[in-house]
User: What shape does this take?
Amino acid sequence: MTAAETEKKLAAQAAVEYVRDGMIIGLGTGSTAAYAVLKIGERVKQGLSVTATSSSLATEQLARSVNIPLVDFCGVSRLDLTIDGADEIDPQLRAVKGGGGALFREKILAAASETMICIADSSKLAERLGKVKVPVEVLPFAAAFVEKSLADLCSRVVIRQLASGARFVTDQGNCIFDMFFDRPYDPQRLAAALKSIPGVIEHGLFLTEIDLLIVAQGEKVSIRKRPDAS
Ligand code: 5RP
Assistant: This one.
Protein backbone atom coordinates (compact mmCIF):
# COMPACT_ATOMS: atom_id res chain seq x y z
CA MET A 1 0.00 0.00 0.00
CA THR A 2 1.37 3.47 -0.88
CA ALA A 3 1.95 6.11 1.80
CA ALA A 4 -1.09 8.06 0.54
CA GLU A 5 -3.34 4.98 0.70
CA THR A 6 -2.15 4.27 4.25
CA GLU A 7 -3.01 7.85 5.23
CA LYS A 8 -6.47 7.57 3.64
CA LYS A 9 -7.14 4.33 5.51
CA LEU A 10 -5.93 5.72 8.86
CA ALA A 11 -8.09 8.85 8.51
CA ALA A 12 -11.11 6.77 7.51
CA GLN A 13 -10.69 4.36 10.42
CA ALA A 14 -10.41 7.25 12.89
CA ALA A 15 -13.64 8.76 11.50
CA VAL A 16 -15.56 5.50 11.83
CA GLU A 17 -14.91 5.64 15.60
CA TYR A 18 -17.52 8.44 15.65
CA VAL A 19 -20.20 6.05 14.38
CA ARG A 20 -22.51 4.84 17.16
CA ASP A 21 -25.35 2.34 17.43
CA GLY A 22 -28.67 3.68 16.17
CA MET A 23 -27.19 6.37 13.95
CA ILE A 24 -28.31 7.15 10.44
CA ILE A 25 -25.19 7.97 8.49
CA GLY A 26 -24.25 9.40 5.11
CA LEU A 27 -21.61 7.62 3.05
CA GLY A 28 -19.31 9.69 0.85
CA THR A 29 -17.75 8.82 -2.47
CA GLY A 30 -14.15 8.25 -3.58
CA SER A 31 -11.16 6.17 -2.57
CA THR A 32 -10.87 7.65 0.97
CA ALA A 33 -14.59 7.32 1.69
CA ALA A 34 -14.39 3.71 0.44
CA TYR A 35 -12.05 2.87 3.33
CA ALA A 36 -14.66 4.24 5.74
CA VAL A 37 -17.41 2.17 4.08
CA LEU A 38 -15.31 -0.99 4.41
CA LYS A 39 -14.58 -0.23 8.09
CA ILE A 40 -18.27 0.41 8.81
CA GLY A 41 -19.00 -2.91 7.10
CA GLU A 42 -16.55 -4.63 9.48
CA ARG A 43 -18.24 -3.03 12.47
CA VAL A 44 -21.70 -4.02 11.19
CA LYS A 45 -20.43 -7.59 10.98
CA GLN A 46 -19.37 -7.29 14.62
CA GLY A 47 -22.86 -6.14 15.64
CA LEU A 48 -22.99 -2.37 15.06
CA SER A 49 -26.57 -1.33 14.31
CA VAL A 50 -26.74 1.60 11.85
CA THR A 51 -28.64 2.67 8.79
CA ALA A 52 -26.81 4.38 5.95
CA THR A 53 -27.59 6.33 2.84
CA SER A 54 -25.21 6.79 -0.04
CA SER A 55 -23.95 9.80 -2.01
CA SER A 56 -23.49 7.76 -5.20
CA LEU A 57 -24.44 4.57 -6.96
CA ALA A 58 -20.80 3.41 -6.72
CA THR A 59 -20.75 3.78 -2.93
CA GLU A 60 -24.18 2.18 -2.69
CA GLN A 61 -22.80 -0.89 -4.45
CA LEU A 62 -19.78 -1.04 -2.14
CA ALA A 63 -21.97 -0.63 0.96
CA ARG A 64 -24.27 -3.43 -0.20
CA SER A 65 -21.27 -5.69 -0.76
CA VAL A 66 -20.33 -5.37 2.93
CA ASN A 67 -23.93 -5.66 4.16
CA ILE A 68 -24.45 -2.15 5.50
CA PRO A 69 -28.23 -1.62 5.82
CA LEU A 70 -29.19 1.10 3.33
CA VAL A 71 -32.12 3.46 3.10
CA ASP A 72 -33.13 5.64 0.16
CA PHE A 73 -32.33 9.27 1.01
CA CYS A 74 -35.57 10.55 -0.53
CA GLY A 75 -37.38 9.55 2.68
CA VAL A 76 -34.74 10.90 5.09
CA SER A 77 -34.78 14.48 6.43
CA ARG A 78 -31.70 14.43 8.65
CA LEU A 79 -28.53 12.42 9.17
CA ASP A 80 -26.51 12.04 12.36
CA LEU A 81 -23.17 11.90 10.62
CA THR A 82 -21.63 11.91 7.16
CA ILE A 83 -18.09 10.79 6.40
CA ASP A 84 -16.65 11.90 3.07
CA GLY A 85 -13.36 12.77 1.36
CA ALA A 86 -12.17 15.95 -0.36
CA ASP A 87 -9.85 17.01 -3.16
CA GLU A 88 -8.43 20.04 -1.35
CA ILE A 89 -9.09 21.56 2.09
CA ASP A 90 -7.86 24.76 3.74
CA PRO A 91 -7.32 25.67 7.44
CA GLN A 92 -10.90 27.05 7.71
CA LEU A 93 -12.13 23.59 6.58
CA ARG A 94 -13.34 24.99 3.28
CA ALA A 95 -12.99 22.27 0.70
CA VAL A 96 -13.21 21.45 -2.97
CA LYS A 97 -15.02 18.19 -3.69
CA GLY A 98 -16.36 16.40 -6.72
CA GLY A 99 -13.28 14.75 -8.16
CA GLY A 100 -15.41 11.61 -8.36
CA GLY A 101 -18.36 13.50 -9.81
CA ALA A 102 -20.68 12.95 -6.84
CA LEU A 103 -20.64 16.53 -5.52
CA PHE A 104 -24.38 17.22 -5.81
CA ARG A 105 -25.54 14.31 -3.66
CA GLU A 106 -22.51 14.78 -1.39
CA LYS A 107 -23.54 18.37 -0.73
CA ILE A 108 -27.12 17.37 0.05
CA LEU A 109 -25.97 14.71 2.53
CA ALA A 110 -23.51 17.16 4.10
CA ALA A 111 -26.27 19.77 4.51
CA ALA A 112 -28.59 17.21 6.10
CA SER A 113 -25.96 16.04 8.58
CA GLU A 114 -25.67 16.99 12.21
CA THR A 115 -21.93 16.38 11.85
CA MET A 116 -19.95 16.23 8.63
CA ILE A 117 -16.50 14.65 8.91
CA CYS A 118 -14.05 15.12 6.08
CA ILE A 119 -11.32 12.50 5.84
CA ALA A 120 -8.11 13.13 3.94
CA ASP A 121 -4.55 12.14 3.28
CA SER A 122 -1.97 14.90 3.75
CA SER A 123 -1.77 15.73 0.02
CA LYS A 124 -5.23 17.32 0.29
CA LEU A 125 -4.13 20.04 2.73
CA ALA A 126 -3.75 23.52 1.22
CA GLU A 127 -3.05 26.93 2.75
CA ARG A 128 -5.47 28.41 0.20
CA LEU A 129 -7.89 26.79 -2.22
CA GLY A 130 -6.77 27.07 -5.85
CA LYS A 131 -4.59 24.17 -6.83
CA VAL A 132 -7.25 21.67 -7.84
CA LYS A 133 -10.02 22.00 -10.39
CA VAL A 134 -13.45 23.08 -9.17
CA PRO A 135 -16.13 20.76 -10.57
CA VAL A 136 -19.55 22.13 -11.48
CA GLU A 137 -22.57 19.92 -12.18
CA VAL A 138 -24.58 21.33 -15.07
CA LEU A 139 -27.92 20.55 -16.70
CA PRO A 140 -27.04 19.23 -20.21
CA PHE A 141 -29.73 21.50 -21.74
CA ALA A 142 -27.67 24.53 -20.62
CA ALA A 143 -24.19 23.11 -21.30
CA ALA A 144 -22.94 25.60 -23.91
CA PHE A 145 -24.39 28.63 -22.12
CA VAL A 146 -22.95 27.60 -18.75
CA GLU A 147 -19.56 26.73 -20.28
CA LYS A 148 -19.27 30.29 -21.63
CA SER A 149 -20.26 31.76 -18.25
CA LEU A 150 -17.75 29.56 -16.38
CA ALA A 151 -14.97 30.52 -18.78
CA ASP A 152 -15.29 34.14 -17.58
CA LEU A 153 -14.60 33.03 -13.98
CA CYS A 154 -11.49 30.84 -14.38
CA SER A 155 -8.41 30.24 -16.51
CA ARG A 156 -9.77 27.22 -18.34
CA VAL A 157 -12.95 25.18 -18.35
CA VAL A 158 -13.19 21.60 -19.58
CA ILE A 159 -16.16 19.29 -19.86
CA ARG A 160 -15.38 16.06 -17.99
CA GLN A 161 -14.91 13.00 -20.17
CA LEU A 162 -14.27 9.32 -19.54
CA ALA A 163 -11.08 7.67 -20.81
CA SER A 164 -13.15 6.45 -23.78
CA GLY A 165 -13.81 10.06 -24.79
CA ALA A 166 -17.50 9.78 -23.90
CA ARG A 167 -18.99 12.56 -21.79
CA PHE A 168 -19.03 11.82 -18.04
CA VAL A 169 -22.62 11.58 -16.82
CA THR A 170 -23.51 12.04 -13.14
CA ASP A 171 -25.88 9.76 -11.22
CA GLN A 172 -28.58 12.37 -11.97
CA GLY A 173 -27.88 12.37 -15.73
CA ASN A 174 -26.07 15.73 -15.78
CA CYS A 175 -22.63 16.75 -17.04
CA ILE A 176 -19.63 18.09 -15.12
CA PHE A 177 -17.48 21.05 -16.10
CA ASP A 178 -14.08 21.28 -14.40
CA MET A 179 -12.80 24.81 -13.78
CA PHE A 180 -9.04 25.33 -13.62
CA PHE A 181 -7.33 28.30 -11.99
CA ASP A 182 -3.87 29.81 -12.46
CA ARG A 183 -3.95 31.39 -9.03
CA PRO A 184 -5.92 31.24 -5.75
CA TYR A 185 -9.47 32.60 -5.96
CA ASP A 186 -11.90 34.02 -3.42
CA PRO A 187 -14.01 30.94 -2.55
CA GLN A 188 -17.02 32.92 -1.30
CA ARG A 189 -17.18 35.12 -4.38
CA LEU A 190 -16.71 32.18 -6.72
CA ALA A 191 -19.43 30.15 -4.96
CA ALA A 192 -21.86 33.07 -5.19
CA ALA A 193 -21.04 33.63 -8.86
CA LEU A 194 -21.58 29.96 -9.68
CA LYS A 195 -24.90 29.85 -7.83
CA SER A 196 -26.15 32.78 -9.90
CA ILE A 197 -25.75 31.00 -13.26
CA PRO A 198 -28.99 29.36 -14.49
CA GLY A 199 -28.20 25.78 -15.49
CA VAL A 200 -25.64 25.25 -12.73
CA ILE A 201 -27.06 22.50 -10.55
CA GLU A 202 -24.32 22.57 -7.88
CA HIS A 203 -20.62 23.31 -7.48
CA GLY A 204 -17.86 21.53 -5.62
CA LEU A 205 -17.03 24.30 -3.13
CA PHE A 206 -17.97 23.14 0.38
CA LEU A 207 -17.42 26.32 2.38
CA THR A 208 -19.51 25.76 5.52
CA GLU A 209 -20.55 22.11 5.51
CA ILE A 210 -17.50 20.45 7.09
CA ASP A 211 -17.43 20.36 10.89
CA LEU A 212 -14.41 18.15 11.48
CA LEU A 213 -11.35 17.25 9.43
CA ILE A 214 -9.54 14.02 10.16
CA VAL A 215 -6.24 13.99 8.33
CA ALA A 216 -3.38 11.52 8.42
CA GLN A 217 0.21 12.63 7.88
CA GLY A 218 2.35 9.52 7.85
CA GLU A 219 1.24 7.49 10.88
CA LYS A 220 -0.05 10.56 12.72
CA VAL A 221 -3.78 11.23 12.66
CA SER A 222 -5.00 14.69 13.65
CA ILE A 223 -8.45 16.08 14.14
CA ARG A 224 -9.28 19.70 13.33
CA LYS A 225 -12.53 21.44 14.11
CA ARG A 226 -13.90 24.17 11.85
CA PRO A 227 -12.74 27.41 13.56
CA ASP A 228 -16.28 28.90 13.73
CA ALA A 229 -18.06 25.60 14.58
CA SER A 230 -19.87 25.41 17.94
C1 5RP B 1 -16.18 12.61 -5.00
C2 5RP B 1 -15.40 13.41 -4.01
C3 5RP B 1 -14.28 12.73 -3.32
O1 5RP B 1 -14.53 12.75 -1.94
C4 5RP B 1 -13.01 13.47 -3.62
O2 5RP B 1 -12.83 13.52 -5.02
C5 5RP B 1 -11.79 12.77 -2.98
O3 5RP B 1 -11.59 11.53 -3.60
P1 5RP B 1 -10.48 10.54 -3.12
O4 5RP B 1 -10.80 10.16 -1.71
O5 5RP B 1 -10.57 9.38 -4.08
O6 5RP B 1 -9.15 11.26 -3.22
O7 5RP B 1 -15.66 14.56 -3.76
O8 5RP B 1 -17.12 13.38 -5.68
